[in-house]
Write a structure and sequence with these properties.
By secondary structure, the chain is of the alpha+beta class. Helices cover 40% and strands 17% of the residues. The chain has 13 helices and 14 strands. The chain has helices spanning 98-105, 108-114, 135-169, 176-197, 218-223, 285-288, 292-304, 331-335, 348-364, 372-397, 422-441, 445-472, 480-485, and strands at 3-6, 21-26, 31-36, 39-53, 70-75, 80-84, 128-129, 225-229, 232-236, 242-245, 257-263, 269-274, 279-284, 308-312. Strands 1-2-3-4-5-6-7 form a seven-stranded mixed sheet. A four-stranded mixed sheet has the order 13-12-11-14. Strand 5 and strand 6 (80-84) form a beta hairpin. It is globular, with a radius of gyration of 27 Å. The model has no long low-confidence stretch (mean pLDDT 84).
Length: 493
């Protein structure tokens, strides 16, 4: 019999997150098990002892900023495991007292059953970390990226110094040198395509009936939902990020949502409150139930899950927890730089590898633009650059958040300005265009095309990121040309 301890703070609908955890459970042998959609992913031996660790003593990679700490587990074989509370509680979180974080997340059960007064082992920094995201897959892709970069570097060195070696040994030209470059470019393009495919959105199961928002942008109405599965309540936001909450009809712990407070003030909302009186999520009624009939449907849905629905004058209002158009709006763009709940591999390293393939490998073959190996190298370079550019464009511009614009947020009209940001918006495209023209004159059309795609993607992605940041701040976006005129700002000024 499996006992559920905690659920991920958030889970993604992307293909790369298909192996992300669904639950953290403990089995009849007191083994801690991470369950994903395919079954068991990580299983400890029988748990022997448990400790609470404050966030300030955790390894830096676990707590780059403040955190609510972690539970350290030691099994009977002496292996250590860390369970970060924030990863298995809710997102975003704030720092709260230790007891509240443990009880509201459900992880207090570990300390209740296995807690000890003995000092924790001093080598816990090397403990295996139990997180909802499948870090093994991401690390595999990163290792493959290193191999691809080394292949490209080896191909470049072969192409650059091979003719010198041939001249010194008086050996005829070796066509194999060109095909080494083509192979490296093909390997890079293949990995880039696999990484891009990992960002594809997976359709969610439509078995259970779901409530949909009745207002908001079309992408939000189509993607967001409130439903229930065999574990409790499932809230999905407009970016496809899901939050799973236990409910009393399926779970009796303090982490279960026991009350839904319907607050009717100037910002009508429903507060989903667990057994520790912690607000776990907030439903804006303007989006989910603006009319009495729709509010009744929402009440009845929650009541069927054992949640008590009450009219309340609760003053708590937490926009960061609201299931609205703004929720998770930065998850996609930020995943391009760093790994996050999306589960996808960051794209910036592959932009660098594609740039290397384009400028170095294809460029090194420019002396023989009509050579078959050169054409193949440049073709794969163009495929890689176009794919990476498409990933950046889609993540930066799709499902644009819509903040409610307030008059005081408009401020002064944007004025023309000359800034250092023009080096990105104008300088890089001009330099790249000049290089592309040179390749074109050499007859190396594929290399010229690849370089143009690469340098034009830089200001385009910067502008799309600017539009997203402006939208998040409730300001009207501006076109690409106007953005360049006003100084190519970041959008968060």
């Amino acid at each position: 019999m499996l006992e559920t301890l905690a659920r991920p703070a958030a889970s993604s609908d992307r293909a790369a997150a298909a192996t992300s955890a669904m639950r953290l459970v403990i089995d009849e042998r007191d083994r801690l098990v991470v369950l994903d959609q395919g079954g068991e992913r990580t299983t400890t031996d029988t748990v022997a002892r448990a400790w609470f660790l404050n966030g300030d003593v955790l390894p830096r990679h676990l707590a780059p900023t403040a955190s609510n700490g972690a539970v350290l587990i030691e099994d009977v074989s002496g292996s250590l495991y860390l369970v970060p509370i924030d990863d298995w509680w809710m997102a975003p979180v704030s720092i709260v007292p230790k007891e509240l974080a443990l009880r509201s997340s459900g992880l207090s059960a570990l300390l209740d059953r296995f807690g000890t007064d003995d000092p924790p082992p001093g080598h816990f920094a090397s403990a295996h970390v139990l997180t909802p995201t499948d870090e093994r897959r991401r690390r595999r892709i990163q290792k493959i990226l290193v191999v691809v970069i080394l292949l490209g570097l080896g191909a470049f060195l072969t192409d650059a110094f091979g003719p010198i070696v041939l001249a010194m040994t008086r050996t005829p030209d070796a066509p194999a040198f060109g095909w080494i470059s083509a192979g490296a470019a093909a390997a890079n393009a293949l990995v880039v395509l696999v990484v891009a495919a990992g960002r594809r959105r997976r359709p969610r199961s439509a078995d259970a009936p779901a409530l949909r928002p009745v207002a908001g942008p079309s992408w939000f109405r189509n993607a967001a939902s409130i439903s229930a599965d065999d574990q409790g309540l499932v809230l999905v936001d407009g970016q496809g990020i899901a939050q799973r909450l236990a409910t009393p009809d399926r779970h009796l712990g303090p982490d279960a949502v026991v009350r839904a407070a319907f607050v009717h003030d100037e910002d009508p909302r429903v507060l989903l409150i667990d057994g520790t009186d912690t607000v776990r999520a907030q439903l804006p009624l303007r989006l989910w139930a603006p009319s009495p009939d729709e509010a009744l449907v929402l009440r009845e849905f929650l009541q069927r899950l054992g949640v008590l629905t009450v009219a309340s004058d609760d003053l708590r209002n937490q926009p960061a927890l609201a299931l609205d158009e703004m929720r998770s709006s930065r998850v996609g763009p930020s995943s391009l730089m760093l790994p996050n709940v999306l589960g996808a591999v960051p794209a910036y390293p592959f932009l660098a590898s594609s740039a290397f393939t384009t400028v170095v490998l294809a460029g090194a073959r420019s002396a023989g633009p009509g050579d078959t190996a050169t054409i193949v190298t440049a073709l794969f370079a163009a495929i890689a650059v176009a794919t990476v550019a498409a990933v950046f464009v889609v993540e930066s511009s799709s499902r644009l958040p819509v903040a409610r614009i307030r008059p005081e947020q408009h401020g002064r009209p944007d004025q023309p300005a000359l800034t250092r940001r023009h080096l990105v918006a104008v300088g890089i495209p001009l330099i790249g265009a000049a290089v592309a023209v040179w390749y074109f004159e050499q007859g190396n059309i594929f290399s010229a095309t690849s370089i143009l795609l690469l340098v034009l993607a830089v200001p385009l992605v910067s502008w799309l990121t600017f539009r997203r940041r402006r939208a998040e701040r409730g300001k009207a976006p501006v076109g690409l040309g106007r953005w360049i005129v006003i100084g190519a700002p970041r959008g968060d000024e």
